Amino acid sequence: MIQISEVISFNSLENYLTSKSWIKKEEPITKITKAGEGNMNVVLRITTSSRSIIIKQSRPFVQKYQNIPAPIERIVVENSFYEALGSETVKENIPTIIGFDPESYILAMEDLGDCDDMSFIYHERTINTEHFKKLITILHQIHNTATQNDFPANMKMRELNHQHIFVLPFLTDNGFSLDDIQIGLQELSMPFKENEDLKKQVSLIGEKYLSKGNTLLHGDYYPGSWMSKNDHLYIIDPEFGFIGFPEFDLGVMAAHLIMATNDTSYIEKIEKTYPSVLDSKLLKKITGIEIMRRLIGLAQLPLSRTLVEKEQLLLMSKNMILS
């Protein structure tokens, strides 16, 4: 099995890519660079004499934190997700797949070019209204995509995510000092970590997350998975995708919009904009859990907020979870 990296030889990679018919023999590689700041996988931009493509390889660990194991099969889920959407209207909002090598866990796709993820909304504290509406439209199309019965359950990734969403953030001692993120955050977090009623509700939603649903989910629908290019939006990184319940994706989306803007009306806006009927209480609970785990859990965001602002968000999310 070939292992890709920024230091792989041009010749080795050319031989591999041409053997897969992903590039032609007459288009030699001119540059190999890292593509973006992905956490989970090795992602490279391969520039040839005529174009550029993206290749992505999963490893049995989180690429950014290699001491954290992660199921290598996640790239299979990502490919299955893109395949499921390939004949749908939403295909214009996902990268085109060039090829997939299941033996080497490598996915090749089009290079979206000069494209930035939408993490900038945390700094700008706002989101374009048309972008918001489009993100809802895309998600509804994903949720209405018919999938085959053999779509991967993705249980290993869900179990990993379950730990980071529903378990680790709520442990009083998880080996992760929040004061390393921001002095005073550890003390601020303790009343929430010690609230048994809160943790009971979180645990119940966590059980639902691991249960079988009937809707194709992206599984990580937040600004890091939203790409914007000249007002055109793309959705990437569906490796956490699974068949679940739509309120999960929508609650995650709502949480990040609220953290960015401090506007809780985004829950109501999502309910009004999303074309299908939703479970309002479940949506609100997911939103609260996602806010809380992003503030006092291990999966931190590029979110520059004062302790006072974070306390307000935590109290807000507590009320959502207990509602």
UniProtKB/TrEMBL annotation:
Keywords: ATP-binding, Kinase, Nucleotide-binding, Transferase
GO molecular function: ATP binding; kinase activity
Domain Aminoglycoside phosphotransferase stretches: 127-273
Domain of life, source organism: Bacteria
Keyword Zinc-finger applies: no
UniProt entry tagged with the keyword Transmembrane: no
InterPro entries for the chain: Aminoglycoside_PTrfase (IPR002575), Kinase-like_dom_sf (IPR011009)
Pfam families: APH
UniProt family annotation: Belongs to the methylthioribose kinase family.
Protein known as: 5-methylthioribose kinase
